[in-house]
Design brief:
The chain is about 25% helix and about 25% strand. The chain is elongated and about 80 Å long. Helix 1 runs parallel beside helix 2 and helix 1 runs parallel beside helix 6. The chain folds into two domains: about 220 residues, 3-Layer(bba) Sandwich (FAD/NAD(P)-binding domain); about 110 residues, FAD/NAD(P)-binding domain, CATH 3.50.50. The protein is an alpha/beta fold and about 325 residues long. Strand 13 and strand 14 form a beta hairpin. It has six helices and 19 strands. The chain starts with 15 loop residues before the first strand and ends in a 6-residue tail after the last helix.
Length: about 325
Amino acid sequence: MQTSAYASDALPGETVDAVVIGGGAAGLNGALMLARSRRSVVVIDSGTPRNAPAEAMHGFIVLDGTPPTEILKRGREQVRQYGGLVVFGKVASAEPAAPSADGDLRFTITLADGRTITARRVLVATGLRDVLPDVPGLAEHWGHSVVHCPYCHGWEVRDEPIGVLATGPASIHHALLFRQLTDDLVYFTRNTPLDENTRARFAARGIRIVDTLVEEVVKADDGGVAGVRLADGAFMARRVLAVATRMQARTEGMDGLKLPMEDLPDDMGRRFASGMAGTTEVPGVWVAGNATDLTAQVGASAAAGALAASHINALLATAETDAALAAAQSGTATA
Ligand SMILES: Cc1cc2nc3c(=O)[nH]c(=O)nc-3n(C[C@H](O)[C@H](O)[C@H](O)COP(=O)(O)OP(=O)(O)OC[C@H]3O[C@@H](n4cnc5c(N)ncnc54)[C@H](O)[C@@H]3O)c2cc1C
């Protein structure tokens, strides 16, 4: 995955209302909502968004066709426009700290370079990592000739000779979606089960099935995929390979928050468990985007970030009102 460094704001010394961990679509939209609500918010982002290999983002109205780097650059500018800070860096640890004098929650976030910041609330928007099957030559084409999402790059590979490298039961449905995009589709079973009924359904749609193992992906002279070499030595020309990846929420640095996790069926992936508006079982910590919704695209991730942020703002407003009332009743002056 690419790393793209960008201009970083300085980390503030004082406690902030919220730290957002991860500055992709989910984190930046969350930060935008918080900043516009006059919350002090700091996004900490290591600059490796999931769709970094893609030349353009598709399937989201108005922004369709825009490079992901451009969307994130504009997103950071918009967060900063309202006073939010975006810090380039990697969170190494995040954990609850001692509460404030009035009992409000506190979290300590430590960056890999040793800097720390204290926040009242945390939004985890770290995205996910796509784990590809271990096929020699496959990984170097990820996001170009090796694709996973018919809605992201399906139109761009329409009518090409496409091969589905099966990874499990989810690949069956994947094949039907890619069949919508090309008449020339081969399903490489790769030792995954395919019952007679599914074989008949594939045959009815003109999807060819290859049970011989794929040994390697062969590169074309133009740098793309030429095809696959099978275990029996045969070569099958394919320009595009579709792979349902194992989707693994990015948890590096998050252990101290002790967020519960959940496995998806059929080894499809592992996510942070969440409830309404990205709430978690850990008071004061929310999750949004691919870190908890493994199938969310950019639009859904951004929307989830915005929803979680509005919930954070709402609960902060309630907590502040509770504290003000308690102070008023005890005769202590507050803001
Ligand atoms: C090749 C490819 C192409 C795609 N194309 C499309 C498309 O065309 N349209 C579409 O809608 N969707 C597309 N997607 C899906 C899209 O990438 C995701 O929906 C989207 O990125 C999810 O946003 P997010 O904010 O949850 O996560 P991300 O965008 O992955 O952002 C997470 C951020 O958190 C940061 N981070 C992680 N851990 C830490 C840490 N410990 N400390 C600090 N920062 C951290 C990362 O560096 C990253 O910047 C594509 C995906 C792939 C793989």
